[in-house]
Amino acid sequence: MKLIELSKQLEEIISKHDLKAIEKGLKSEELEKNILAINEKDRVLKIGIVGRVKAGKSSLLNALVFDGKNILPKAATPMTASLTKLEYGEKVEAFVEFYTNEDIDILKSDYEKYAKKFKELEENKIEELIKIQQRKLNQEFLDSSTKKEIEEKANKFTNLEMKNDLLYASYDQYERIDKSKIDLIELQEFKNIEASNMDILNEKLLDFVGVDGKYMPFTKSVTIKLNNENLKDIEIIDTPGINDPISSREARTEDLLQECDVIFIVSPSGQFLSNEDIVLIDRITNKEGIQEIYIIASQIDNQLYGSEKVKNGGVLPKVLESISETLTKHTQEILNKNKEHLSPDIFKKFFKNDVLYSSGAIYSMLQSFENKQDWDANLQKIWENLNLHYPDYFNDNESAKINLSLLGNISTIKNILEDVRAEKDEIIERRKNDFIKAKMESLKEYKEEITKDIEQNIEKIESSDIEEIKKQKNNLLRIRIETSEAVTWAYEDYIDEFRLDLKNNLNNKIENFFEDSKNDLDNSEDSRKEEWETGMLWWKEKHSKNVTLVKSKVIRDSLKNLISKIEDSISKEADDKIINSKKILLSKVVPVLREKAGDKNIDIHQIEKVVRNTIKSIVYPEINYTSTFPKELDKGGKLEGSEAEEFIESANNYISNFQTIVKKDVKSYISLMTDSLKKQNLGEDIISNYVKDIERLENDINNKELSLTKYKYILEQLGDIKC
Predict the structure, then answer these.
(1) Distances in Å between the alpha carbon of 398 and those of 63, 359, 393, 404, 591?
(2) Distance in angstroms (rounded) separating the CA atoms of residues 554 and 542
(3) Residue 436 reports pLDDT greater than 50
(4) Interval 517-553: pLDDT, tens
(5) Fewest beta carbons less than 10 Å away: which of 62, 466, 654, 717?
(6) What was the pLDDT predicted at 75?
(7) CA end-to-end span of the chain, whole Å?
(8) At 93, phi and psi to the nearest 5?
(9) 316, 283, 281: which is closest to 296 by C-alpha?
């Protein structure tokens, strides 16, 4: 590649002739690695599948990848509850990632919170039921059998209510882990599972993803590699449902979705875009590059027999068209209601495409049409209903196949994948070309700067008088201390201005960021009125309370955005100050040098080089708050009740503590930067470099012919590099 070749040529010239210039861009080795990484990383088309349990995700994947064969387990199994990736591989194998000790500690903490809430709720219900029974019987003391009956009822009521608690998933998961009595060390030998075919692999995976699998409670994610042509150049990410008990897996899921080139949101047409789906959609954020988003109404065959059939006179194509229009309209209404939770770019992408419909079951029927005897009871029932309600469309094999294809609609989805694949190839090429173009410009600047230095050396050798050079050197040595001190004083004034400006600008910006984040937190809290009744059939007592609601992802994203803004602001503000430093320093130093050394001894190019080296010496302290984000705030989904209140309190405490930390860090950051500037003796550096340059020039003039030949040869070599 031309860029790599030119970079290597330039590096060779610099090394051979011991030239010094500002480092610009990446070295040739790093350039080569980056270009290879662009090609390798983006070669795979990443497809994200999002949907709740039993939405039809497995059926869609079986249709897209395995031609409708039931290779992957249906969503009724916990396979889709874990993060699953499908990739191409030379052999059939799976890689299992297990929960870490840290993950299990988080589960245990949530388990204990759930148990505490359960006990408190149960005790309150027992107390309520006892009071009701005492009033009913008009007696203060109850016998043991009545108390036992009350306790059983309270336990039943509590179990029903707590099943919907957001901590239940963690409670259930940790309980399974605790009962298993398995040590994490035992699981290391199962990280890689190999098999001769997918059926055998699925059988082996039952221990890790099956309902009663021995190691299922510990399974965090599964990557399945198959020697399947349909998976070449494709990576499919099948995401878990909402309320993931493991925050690290929830975060990993969101990170993977951001990398996807196309996302399919699968929602069953009978319960299309429920609240559960909206929470899942909330995971999707913007990314650089393309990200096509399609909503698929699955199990469309269940919607063919009601009002849409009557309204469209039983004409199958019209029924499908009408269902699609209704679903698209419904989608737009739902998304408009939730617009504030989606980035503008993502919002546009949702509206870009109409809702697609599909039926994995019907596509499977089409693929095995000649072997109807092998259809399971579900497929037999679908076939029976189609023939009963739409006999004209399924009365012969040819028509039946055409209309099964129409209903399955998998070919449309496959075509979309091919279109995205084609578009993605173009974008990869553009990304690569943009990278190469930017680096070529950097290489060109680098070469031009070295060329300029060489040309100035040649001009000085040809035009300078050796006696004048010696006199200039002696003059500099004579006024060295006086000039150096004067420049240093001017430099110290600059450092004071640098520190004050950076401090004021950073503190003002950071203060505004925290105010915005606090407003986000205030606006994220909501409440709903909860009403219930207690008592028997003949006597009821009504109760109500306000329950706090909060969308944890909105707060979490706001806080992570706060971290990102602060990190970016600190580095950007410092960068801006450094970029302006050269001009400011020159404006302070040059007048002092003119006054002390005289115009004849002033070489602006030389001063620029010293100032440039001084600026390069500035130390940038590392600022990284991302790794310190607290685990208790790394949650997704809608929280309510005491959990929502605890979350808001934790978020407020985090903002308050974080603000204190940032203020302290900014002070330290500025102090370190100014200390690194103070370590530079700018006055002495300028004079020393002048003396060195004069001595070099003196040597070049004394060996004029040889020096000119050397520099002109270097220019020729640089000229051969055509950027």
Answers:
(1) 21, 19, 10, 10, 92
(2) 34
(3) yes
(4) 888 888 777 777 767 666 555 556 676 777 788 877 7
(5) 466
(6) 38
(7) 12
(8) -160, 165
(9) 281
The pLDDT value given to residue 37: 63
The 10 Å Cβ neighbour count of residue 28 is 19
* Beta-sheet strands, E only, within 464-573: 525-536, 539-551
Tokens of 548: 């706090």
Res 342 pLDDT > 70: no
Q: Name the β-bridge partners of 639.
A: 550
CA atoms within 13 A on the CB side of 52: 17
Note the pLDDT of residue 720: 85
With left for phi above 0 and alpha for psi between -120 and 50, is residue 25 left, alpha or beta? left
Q: Strands, DSSP E only, in 537-609?
A: 539-551
CA angle at residue 262 from 257 to 267, to 5 degrees? 80
pLDDT digits (tens, 9 = 90+) for 406-426: 999 999 988 888 887 777 777
Residue 671 to residue 415: CA distance in whole angstroms: 59
Gyration radius of the chain over CA positions: 36
Which backbone phi and psi does 530 adopt, to 5 degrees? -105, 130
Three-state secondary structure of 652-691: HHHHHHHHHHHHHHHHHHHHHHHHHHHCCCHHHHHHHHHH
**Which tokens belong to 288?**
């650089």
Residue 76, pLDDT score: 34
Residue the block writes with tokens 């399947």:
228
Please answer whether residues 667 and 506 qualify as being in contact, where contact means their C-beta atoms are separated by less than 8 angstroms.
no
**Cross-sheet strand order for the sheet of 525-536:** 525-536, 539-551, 638-640
Structure tokens at 688: 């020393």
Q: Which residues pair with 293 in a beta bridge?
A: 263
Report the C-alpha gap between 522 and 528 in whole angstroms. Answer: 16
What φ, ψ does residue 630 adopt, rounded to 5°?
Answer: -70, 140
36 Cβ partners below 8 Å, 6+ apart? none
Sign of CA dihedral 238, 242, 246, 248: positive
Q: Whole-number mean pLDDT of the chain? A: 80
Sheet holding 83-88, edge to edge: 192-195, 92-98, 219-226, 83-88, 234-238, 45-50, 262-268, 292-298, 356-357
Of the chain, the percentage scoring pLDDT greater than 70 comes to 86
Q: Could you tell me the CA-to-CA distances from 446 to 10, 334, 723 in Å, in that order?
A: 9, 54, 10
* Global pTM value: 0.60
In this structure, are residues 502 and 573 in contact, taking their beta carbons and an 8 Å threshold? Answer: yes
CA distances from 242 to 96, 112, 239, 247, 622 (A): 21, 21, 9, 11, 36
Q: For residue 354, what is the DSSP state?
A: P
Residues 267 and 704: their CA atoms lie apart, in Å, by 81
CA 688: distance to chain centroid?
50
Coil vs helix vs strand at 50: strand
Q: How far is CA 554 from CA 293, 340, 658, in A?
A: 21, 10, 18
DSSP 628: G
- DSSP character for 536? E
Extract the tokens encoding 365: 């029927």
> What is d(CA 379, CA 360) in angstroms, rounded to the nearest whole number?
11
Provide the β-strand partners of residue 294. Answer: 264
- Return all residues near 426 (Cβ < 8 A) that are at least 6 apart: none
Residue 479: phi and psi, rounded to 5, are -100, 15
Integer Cα distance of 52 and 59 in angstroms: 13
**CA–CA distance, 103 with 218 (Å, rounded to integer):** 10
Q: Find the length of the chain.
A: 723
How many angstroms separate the CA atoms of 438 and 333, rounded?
Answer: 43
Alpha-carbon gap, residue 549 to 527, rounded angstroms: 5
Beta-carbon contacts of residue 406 (< 8 Å; ≥ 6 apart): 316, 317, 320
Residue with tokens 């070489």, as numbered in its chain: 603
Q: Bridge partners of 592? A: none
Q: 340: burial class by Cβ within 10 Å (0-12, 13-18, 19+)?
A: exposed
pLDDT at 335: 80
